Amino acid sequence: GDAEPLYQKALQLTQRLLGEEHPSVAMSYNNLAGLYQSQGRYSDAEPLYQKALQLYQRLLGEEHPDVAMSYNNLAGLYRSQGRYGEAKPLYQKALQIAEQSLGVNHPNTITTRENLTNLGLTQNDQKRTAEDAENTEE
User: Fold this and answer.
1) Cβ atoms within 10 Å of 97's Cβ, excluding its own
2) 106 part of a folded domain
3) Would the pTM of this model clear 0.85, i.e. be above it?
């Protein structure tokens, strides 16, 4: 699509104006990663989500809401790839940070809690489907 060059240009401009070590650069990584994820380009999205997370951790500290958002984004990517075992601890980490930094009733905290719950439901559905398949084969 037409969005990719714009996102890349935004990232380059942000890096040039603010330097690599700036939260806005992490946000640009997140935006580009989100675009790639929406296009199903998971292997392009993952390193950008990871870079954003590491940058936020370094600049803002582990307990910052933007770090929680980054964990949530990476977990969402893993979930859309069916990598549930990798997604769950990231959602848990995101929820823990969001509850502490934003409060339990903040919209971002609620969204993260729902993501974790939905992941559990998806895993249970998959387990049941696998068990049903095994039972059918007997």
Assistant:
1) 24
2) yes
3) yes
